[in-house]
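=== RUN LOG ===
request id: a7f3
mode: sequence -> structure
chains: 1
length: 104
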Amino acid sequence: MVLSKKLAEAIALRIATTIAATTVYKTLASKISVSSGASATGIGAPIGLLMMQGVLQRSSIASQRLKINRPKLHNIMQQNGNLQFIYFIVEKPMEKYIHSIPRI
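=== RESULT ===
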């Protein structure tokens, strides 16, 4: 049990590091800032809101999937700054590492 907790913590840290370095994260951040800039002018408000809603929905669905499949990892990520909501960004690239965490 202690080993699985340490493994989950190590993987959560690796996920957070990978998220910060991914191209997807940088692209997502640039899209959100561009859409928020367009929203501020009133020109792209509907598009900005639609994009934000899509990102939030993907984030929520991936978080629920993580909670069902790996509840311990979900809890660790939640306790460390609600990282479970950005899990969708690295879900596919980190899949083999996440599946190596034993279910408890």
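=== NOTES ===
The helical segments are 2-21, 23-41, 45-69, 71-79, 87-90, 95-98.
The chain has six helices and no strands.
=== END ===
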